[in-house]
Amino acid sequence: MDEDKIIEERKNKLLNLLKKRTLWTFLILIIAIILGAYIRSLPMQSHGAGVPSLFQFVTGQAFDGNPGLWDVAKNNWTLGPDLDPWLFTRYAGEMIDGSMGKMDMMRYVPLGFDNSAELQMVSYMIVITYKITGMFGMYNVVFAAAFMPVLLFLLTIVSFFLFSREIFINEDEKSKIRANIIALISTFFMITIPAFLSRTVAGIPEKESVGFFFMFLSFYLFLKAWKSKSLKSSIIFAILSGISTALMGLTWGGVSYIYATMAIATMIAFLLNKTNKKEILSYALWIIFSITTTLLFTNRFSLKGFLTGLDTGLSIIVLFIMILHFIIWETKFKNVISKIKFISETKLPKNIISLIIGIILLILIIIIFLGPGFIIDKANGLSKILLNPITGRWSTTVAENRQPYFGEWASEFGPTISSLPNFPIMFWLFFIGSVVLFNSLLKKLNKNHRWILTGLYILFFFGLVFSRYAPHPAFFDGEDFISKLFYFGSALLFIGAIIYYYIKYESSGDNGFKEAGYEFILLFSLFILCLFTARSAIRLIMVLGPIAPIFVGYLVVASVDLFRRNKDETWKIITGVFMIFVIVASLFSFYTFYKQITAQAYSFVPSYYNQQWQKAMKWVDDETPKNAVFAHWWDYGYWVQSIGNRATVLDGGNAKVYWNYLMGRLVLTGDNQAEALEFLYNHNATHLLIDSSDIGKYGAFSSIGSDKNYDRFSWIGTYQMDEKQTQETSNQTIFVYTGGTAIDENLIINESGKEILLPSQKSGAYAILIPVIKKGNVTNYDQPSIIFIYQGKQYTQKMRYLDINGKFLDFKSGIEACAFVFPSLISSGNGVTKNDIGAAMYISPRLLRGYLSQKYILNDPFNKFSNFKLNYTEPNPIINSLNSQGMNLPDFVYYQGVQGPIKIWKIEYTGNEQVKEEYLDTDASKYLDWEL
After folding, report:
1. Which of 77, 81, 425, 543 counts the most CB atoms within 10 A of its CB?
2. Interatomic CA distance for residues 433 and 578, integer angstroms
3. Is 108 left (phi over 0), alpha (psi -120 to 50) or beta?
């Protein structure tokens, strides 16, 4: 009997335990963490038999084979296909072995780089991961670097869950359950949304992988500080939030999201009379600890920079206005201010009066200490951010800085269905969720006023998102007057309406606006900021990635609540249909995202291109002197430094952008050896490296290396043989290569005894003609031609040079251009076949004058760069593999684009080179009268 009683008691205890919401929340969160670990670690899992399943991951079978993150040259762990992570990994290695100095002489030779000005939090996190993994076996620093994003993402899952939960939680039990459900749904979407993958996956130890953890943690801690009833708890949480913000600032420039969001949200809260002594103190402590902690650990920032920055400066201005408001209305100064006639008679709320006085005082202080030019500069800076966030040649040539159109970034928030290809489901779910939540925040307002403001919010959202819908001639291209009117007009209407109703309600003593919680104000401030930045630069789309799911999680729960609350039969059907749509669309999105993200994560491993670099860098490490210095385009700097262990002139930090200009102008597009040698001599360069991707990047570095009038700007057009257009005559065969590229400089041609100007970028090079004459077993090539098109008319012109089958032919006449003919590969069911003359490049007169075309592509046919001695060639892996099977391919082939070698030249100086201050200076403004 006693035994039965004990069993019954234990059964009841278990049932009671299972009824606890905390336990279920914890268990589901654990499942989310396991899912996150599985997806983010896929590059480290076995590759070769397809994507390992979640079951294989949980049971350990996913790690039985060869991992995807593997260096084929060194037979060891490596990182994914990215650049910057190699710098952080090298720094982590130096921290571990104690060799990190004040100056990094591997970078920007001969000046080096001040390590105290670099953000090193990522490297510290790699070191911590190295210590942790060292408890379980012998793992090197590269393995720790590869695994660090996985570990930090698991922490990000927790901080994101806590943040999203804190937004919706109140003290009553029902709100806690509701908040847990919203947070869990949001977390699962955050884990699977593709836009958030690229910087949080194994093998990519980027700043963002660490930064997002601190961002969500900072927001969570500040919300706890704001909502705490205890002053002591509020102080502790505010200080911790400040420290967390500083840690993000020491990690990633994305800390601006925290400063800007906090500033905007707190200013709105101040205007809504939601800031008292506790809130002002919490905000002040957050600001003080975030700034002082940051300044303690890096020389990258200064106190003046914090005070004058658009984001940090705004945060400080908000604090200044709140303190000023307290002094004016909560101290003896109140008696003085109330005697001023304008203030005593105005109907404006006190907060607005404080804001006006604060702005006037700030303008006076700025004029006195910084001058009126400071205000003009900041106004111009803000205007640039709103209209043209990315300017200058260097910034605009970096692909991830490009300003996207709606269609480009909305595709990250699919999925879509075949019948509605322009309907990204996740986008519309988070849009609807934001509308429903915004409307619910205004529930204490007059119904008409609430729906007017909700309608204007929708208009504002559409203006922000759709005013840059597609390139011209689309109606909203983001550039014309209509687009800008929609962009600014919708924002002004929305903000103006809020101000109008706010003053109206405050004047009548109605606290309807005050009912909106600070946590929701913060969420919407962050959301709108993320929408704006997603519209501004492709690389910032990922920040919207984890924020959007919060609105989807809310929408799912709100749709269920709406259905359950409705008693009217008709509305019950309508809300039921809406609820089913939301749930089905959410489940479909989650499932599609899961399938998509697992495939993407599995593919975040070195490609054959990266393997080509692995082999080249092994040669560099093994065969070149330890003090060798490499020159190349900036993209490859971290690879050479960290994999090849050699110093470089340029790297991805772009701390000395002027040197990028000099490298692009004097070397890569350089038209004479003497200038190239002198620039390289000033930087102690011993080797020069070019790889095949530089062919595609020619437009970027020729733009950067051009003068004010773009004298070097060009691009390399690739053409493919169109066998259908092959022309057979009695004595020759003419092969036609079609493609199409604009010409890069004005060209004067002679047509029927008449000179015709073909203007740059308004005329096109449409096709290349190669005549072939066969006599028995002998094949000869006649002079090639290029077909230009201008204003719908074709002009055929002879080219002077032809490079084909390893021969460089000079026909002594024609335009000073070259047709470079090389093989193309065709995949078929039986393997790969080749056409020895299947593709061609049009080397225009401008291109032909430059180093890259002459030396890298054509092997120096004019002997103009004889002091650059070819030291090593690493063939493309595709070419290498086919050659090992007897195909006998040259350096270049066309197969899914141009495939070519990595070439490294040893530099032999003439002895006539001299040190020139211009080549070592970093201030471009001394030498250029245009924005670089």
Report:
1. 543
2. 12
3. left
- Stated as kind and residue range, the H or E segment containing 793 is strand 793-804
CA 215 to each of CA 77, 192, 293, 295, 911: distance values in angstroms, whole numbers, following the listed order: 30, 19, 16, 18, 54
pLDDT in tens, 282-327: 999 999 999 999 999 999 999 999 999 989 999 999 999 999 999 9
State the alpha helices, DSSP H only, in 388-424. 393-397, 406-410
pLDDT the model gives residue 13: 66
255, 248 Cβ separation under 8 angstroms: yes
Contact 706, 850 (CB under 8 A): no
Q: Give yes or no for a cis peptide into 771 (omega within 30° of 0).
A: no
Bridge-based pairing of strands 902-907 and 647-648 is: unpaired
- Phi then psi for residue 738, to 5 deg, are -105, 150
Q: Which pair of structure tokens corresponds to residue 78? A: 């490596």
Per the model's pLDDT, the better-predicted residue between 401 and 495 turns out to be 495
- Secondary structure of 299-350 in HEC code, one letter for each residue: CCCCHHHHHHCHHHHHHHHHHHHHHHHHHHHHCCHHHHHCCCHHHHHCCCCH
Residue type, 906: K
Q: Where are the domains of the chain?
A: 228-391, 409-602, 608-710+921-926, 717-843
- The CB density around residue 377, as the number of other CB atoms within 10 Å, is 13
What average pLDDT is seen over the chain?
93
The per-residue DSSP string of 741-786 comes to EE-SS-EEEEETTEEEEE-TTTSEEEEEEEEEEEETTEEEE---EE
Of the listed ranges 73-87, 414-428, 678-692, the one predicted with least confidence: 414-428
* DSSP for residue 442: T
| Other C-beta atoms lying within 10 Å of the C-beta of residue 160 | 28
Q: Tell me how far apart the alpha carbons of residues 653 and 647 are, in angstroms, rounded to a whole number.
A: 14
Residue 758 in tokens: 């073909």
Please check the confidence at residue 348 and state whether its pLDDT lies above 60: yes
How many Cα neighbours within 13 Å face the side chain of 437? Answer: 26
pLDDT at 21: 76
| pLDDT over 90 (residue 15) | no
Give SS3 for 135: coil
Q: What is d(CA 63, CA 65) in angstroms, rounded to the nearest whole number?
A: 6
Rounded CA separation 417/303 (Å): 52
Q: Are 742 and 763 in contact (CB under 8 A)?
A: yes
H/E stretch holding 903: strand 902-907
Residue whose structure tokens are 């995202």: 593
Q: What percentage of the chain has pLDDT greater than the value 70?
A: 97
Is the distance from CB of 119 to CB of 251 less than 8 angstroms? Answer: yes
What lies within 8 Å, CB to CB, of 251 at 6+ separation is 119, 121, 122, 207, 210, 211, 214
Q: Record the tokens describing residue 121, joined without a space.
A: 């939090």
DSSP 275: -
Structure tokens belonging to residue 851: 């180093």
For residue 466, CA distances in Å to 93, 417, 451, 478 come to: 46, 21, 22, 9
DSSP 471: S
* DSSP 8-state class, residue 52: P
φ and ψ at residue 603, rounded to 5 degrees: -90, -5
* DSSP H or E stretch at residue 787: strand 785-790
Query: Helix (H) and strand (E) counts for the chain?
Result: 35, 23
CB neighbours (10 Å) of residue 107? Answer: 26
Does residue 719 sit in helix, strand or coil? strand
| 140, two tokens | 């090197």
The whole-model pTM stands at: 0.93
Q: Which amino acid is at 578?
A: F
Pairing assessment for the beta strands 764-775 and 815-828 based on DSSP bridges: unpaired
Q: How far does the chain reach from its first CA to its final CA, in angstroms?
A: 88
> Is residue 426 within 8 Å of 434, Cβ to Cβ?
no
Q: Which CATH number fits domain 608-710+921-926: 3.40.50.12610, 3.40.50.300, 3.40.50.150, 3.40.50.970?
A: 3.40.50.12610
